[in-house]
Amino acid sequence: MKILLLEDNVNLAEIIKEMLEEKGHTVDWFDDGETALFESAHGYDCFVLDIHVPTMDGIALLKEIRQREKRTPAIIISANIELETIQKAYIAGCHDYLKKPFYMYELERKIDLLCSANERLKLQDGLSYDPKDELLYDASNEVMKLTLKERRLMALLAKTPNIIVSIEHIEQYVWEGEDVGIAGLRSLVKRLRTKLCEKSIETQNYGYRLVVVSSHYK
Q1: Among residues 12, 188, 25, which one has the least CA distance to residue 116?
Q2: Cα(first)–Cα(last) distance of the chain, in Å?
Q3: Sign of dihedral through CA atoms 23, 80, 60, 10?
Q4: Which domains, and CATH codes, for the chain?
Q5: What does each C-alpha distance from 86 to 67, 75, 89, 96, 205 come to in angstroms?
C-alpha cells in the first residue's frame, strides 16, 4: 500500500515511516502542505495528515484532495483536541482523527481497518478486481496475468471506479512522471481492454474511467 504522510515533526515522522515500511507499505513523507498537495495526485492508497504544518495545514490540504477524489481514506493526526477543529477535519473528509500522543499500534490498526480494502470490484463479463492485492479475476475466479504497467493502470483506475482519471494522473502514476506520449498511453489502455472487455474502460474527455458494476462483491 502506498501512503502519503504529512508530518513536520522529524522524529515522529521517522518513527511512523519506519513502522509502516516494516509492515510492507511504501511511505512518502512530506513536512509541508504545499509539497504534499502537489504530490497527492500520484495514486496514494491512504493519507496520514498532521494539521499544523508549514505552507498549508492538513485540513486545507484534505479539502483540496477531496475536490479531486472522494474515496481514499484519510487519517488526521494532531495534538489539537478542540471540538471545532475535529469537526472541521471530518467535514473536510477525514475518516478518523487520532489525537497526539498516540501509540504506534493505534495508527497501524486504523490504517489496516480503513485503508486495506477487502471487497472486490465487480466488472463486466463476470470479472472482478481485488484492490487490496491488485489482482484481476476471470469469471471462473482464476487470477489473470497482468504486466507491471497494466497492473498499475488497473490499480489507479480502481481507486475511483466509475470516475474519470485524467491522462496526467495516469502518466504520473503508471510511468512515474516520465513523458510517454498519448500513443503509448492509448496502447496500454487497449491492451488492458483486451483482458477486460471493450466497454470496461471508457474514454471520456481527457481521461479514462473504469466501469464497475458493483463495489460490494465478495
Answers
A1: 25
A2: 20
A3: negative
A4: 2-115 (3.40.50.2300), 120-217 (1.10.10.10)
A5: 20, 12, 5, 10, 37
Average pLDDT, the chain: 89
**pLDDT tens sequence across 121-142:** 889 888 989 887 789 988 887 8
Rounded distance between C-alpha atoms, residue 168 and residue 80, angstroms: 36
Q: Which three cell numbers stand for residue 82?
A: 478542540
**Structure pTM?**
0.60
- Lookup result for grid cell 487490496: 132
Predicted confidence at residue 119, as pLDDT, reads 63
**Cell output for 60:** 486545507
Please enumerate in sequence order all residues whose Cβ is within 8 A of that of 95, keeping only pairs 6 or more positions apart, or say none. Answer: 73, 74, 75, 114
Q: How many Cβ atoms from other residues are within 10 Å of residue 50's Cβ?
A: 24
CB atoms within 10 A of CB 60: 17
Go through the chain and tell me how many residues it has. 218
Alpha-carbon gap, residue 30 to 39, rounded angstroms: 9
What is the C-alpha separation between 190 and 196, in angstroms, rounded? 10
What amino acid is encoded at 214 in this protein?
S
